[in-house]
Amino acid sequence: MSAKFNRLLMPMLMPFLLSPLAGEIQLGKLFSNGMVLQRGIEVPVWGWSAAGETIRVTFDGKNYSGNADHNGKWMVRLPAMVAGGPYKMHVVGKGGEVLLEDIWVGDVWVCSGQSNMEWQVAISGNAAAEIAAANDPMIRHFKVPRSSAKTPQDTLVGGEWQVASPKTVGGFTAVGYYFARELRKSVDVPIGLLNTSWGGSRLEPWMHANALGITNAENAIDEIREEQEAFARLVRAELEANVGPLPDEDAGMDGDTPLWADPDLDDSNWDKIPAPVLWESDKYQGLDGIGWYRGTFELSEAEAANPVEIGVGQIDDSDITWVNGVEVGRMEMQYNKPRVYQVPVEALRPGINHIAIRVEDTGGGGGIWGEAELMYVKAGNDVRSLAGDWRFKVGAFISYTQIFDNQVPTILYNQMIHPILNFPIKGALWYQGESNAGPADAYQYRELFPKMIRDWRERWNVGEFPFLFVQLANFMAEDDQPAESDWAVLRESQSATLAVPNTAQAVIIDIGDAADIHPRNKQDVGLRLSLAARKLAYGEDVVYSGPVFKSQEIMKQKVALTFDHIGGGLKAKDKYGYLKGFAIAGADKKFVWAKAQIKGDKVYVWNEAVKEPVAVRYAWGNNPEDANLYNAEGLPASPFCTD
């Protein structure tokens, strides 16, 4: 049975899988060992059993009960509780019983968005040290599996609670984990992270159909699916015309055995492909999936008696690399990081040595890329190039319809948000927007994003919970001259969403990476979100935001700017005190770089060539890396335009 058929069939089978005919009590997926329940509010516990059956729930020595409806669904409500634990939960009915342990009452935060929220601790900055130091069992994490549905679903497809430890924390959302770690320094309660995120997802898939104004969602989804299927067939047909049949499962692997890493494999009939060059630049346009590279290097007997180092370039997105069938290294979702691996003596042989690289690409460019100097073998003091022609073969093709599940309106909400709406939360963290930063989308975001927040709040029914979001980081090349920018417009749309009550924004234009849409510094992102939580969710008197533009006053050739959230005062993060990142324009709206100076609580901006200024922009660009206006607490000013 194909994976696609399974995905389509599961929603139809779900009622039968949960059927009381099985005679067993089943709990919602969120209820498992190690879970965190929200303090201070009534907590529903739900599941399925035989229709009409009485279910008894014992928690903290107290008994509660409820009856299953005609579909077998039941819900028992626990009263509001204070933080504490560990507790046990015993659920009993005629169909059996379930015992859950190590349950804590604290605060639950939803972590949602696209890849920068899904991004794991294991592939973030300083990962090894952070994982080793993960010693707070009061941080718990539940990852909602990537999944989608045409209609709102009652249950998740899987997931389990995990306690933070060196064994588990590598798979946690990095932003969520560092948020919880910082928050725990001032809020001494257990923190549950409910991670429902999907890399590359647009905003619309996370929204209910009504919030999008879609009246017949199933028909709309079917139409989009038909377009996707047609496009996928076209891409596949063109690709197969160039390279032959494409497998759907990795032909290079037999379970965990890498067949195509075998040094004795005859690869003479494989294609030749240049490296380092993305495979789309060759004849593999449209290939998303798995590709295998094979190459060789030669060693003398003396060289093979000592370890060697190999560089196999930058790889988009993930790789596993073998030498003579021995795995020497792997990296996951780090398309911009050069692969440098140490090869032990046991893997080497005098004469010809075989390298095999399994590359997995999840969308966009794929394969080995970067500078030729990054591909080499280093034996002693001798360095030889590995750049040039390699043997190449497609291991598996990923259909566009699989890749773009996260692009279709409502379908992530239906399967990854709707089933958790009865689970009370303290608040939500959101990191998304890169996929909506196109020319037609960036401005519209200021309408859709507030709609989503309001709709989530209404459906969660726990009040106007704090909604904290991350503004897009700096990315791509800096502008030589002031220029228009879709990313700047998207950031402005995010800032406009602050008009929604009980929201806050973490500005991170100073900790991004020009060459990587996934900046590895997730520690500071979590820290800045935690400051906002301490203010909005916990009422602490802390400075949680950098300067936010308030007003401008035109004073002949200068423009005076005032700000909110100046904290202990405005600061220029520059050893000479110079402000950067400002541009100014007259009535012609032609922006030029400007001089800027802090005087008291204001910033004065000017350019001698602009005699009658009318507008100012700050940090307006894809990568405003040199923008350096902060408050005394070290939080960066949010980008803005006054035009």
Rg computed from alpha carbons, rounded to a whole number of angstroms: 27 Å
* Strand segment tally: 37
Residue ranges: pLDDT <50 for 5 or more in a row? 1-22
- CATH architectural grouping of the domain at 241-401: Sandwich
CATH class of the domain at 241-401: Mainly Beta
Q: How many helical elements? A: 10
Major β-sheet, in short?
Answer: 11 strands, mixed
- CATH homologous superfamily label of the domain at 241-401: Galactose-binding domain-like
Beta-strand proportion:
25-35%
In CATH terms, what is the fold-level topology of the domain at 241-401?
Jelly Rolls
How much helical structure, as a percent, in the residues? 10-25%
C-alpha termini separation = 57 Å
Could you explain how this protein is built, in words?
The chain starts with a helix and ends with a strand. The strands form 8 sheets. Strands 2, 4, 5, 7, 8, 9, 10, 11, 25, 26 and 27 form an 11-stranded mixed beta sheet that branches. Strand 31 (582-585) and strand 32 (592-593) form a beta hairpin. It is built from 10 helices and 37 strands. Among the domains are: 241-401, Jelly Rolls, CATH 2.60.120; 548-641, no CATH class. It is 18% helix and 32% strand. It is an alpha+beta fold and 643 residues long.
What tags apply to this protein structure?
six-stranded antiparallel beta sheet, 10 helices, 37 strands, globular, alpha+beta
Question: SSE layout and pairings?
Answer:
Layout: H1 3-17, E1 26-27, E2 36-38, E3 43-48, E4 54-59, E5 62-67, E6 73-78, E7 84-93, E8 96-113, H2 115-118, H3 127-132, E9 139-143, E10 161-163, H4 174-183, E11 191-197, H5 217-243, E12 253-254, E13 257-258, E14 271-275, E15 289-299, E16 308-316, E17 318-323, E18 326-331, E19 338-343, E20 351-361, E21 367-369, E22 375-379, E23 382-385, E24 388-397, H6 400-403, H7 411-417, E25 427-431, H8 445-460, E26 467-470, H9 486-496, E27 503-506, H10 523-536, E28 548-555, E29 558-564, E30 570-572, E31 582-585, E32 592-593, E33 595-599, E34 602-606, E35 615-618, E36 629-631, E37 640-641
Parallel strand pairs: 2-8, 8-11, 8-25, 9-11, 25-26, 26-27
Antiparallel strand pairs: 1-3, 3-6, 4-5, 4-7, 7-8, 9-10, 12-13, 14-24, 15-20, 15-24, 16-19, 16-21, 16-22, 17-18, 17-20, 22-23, 28-29, 29-34, 30-36, 31-32, 31-35, 33-34, 35-37
Helix pairs in contact: 4-10, 8-9
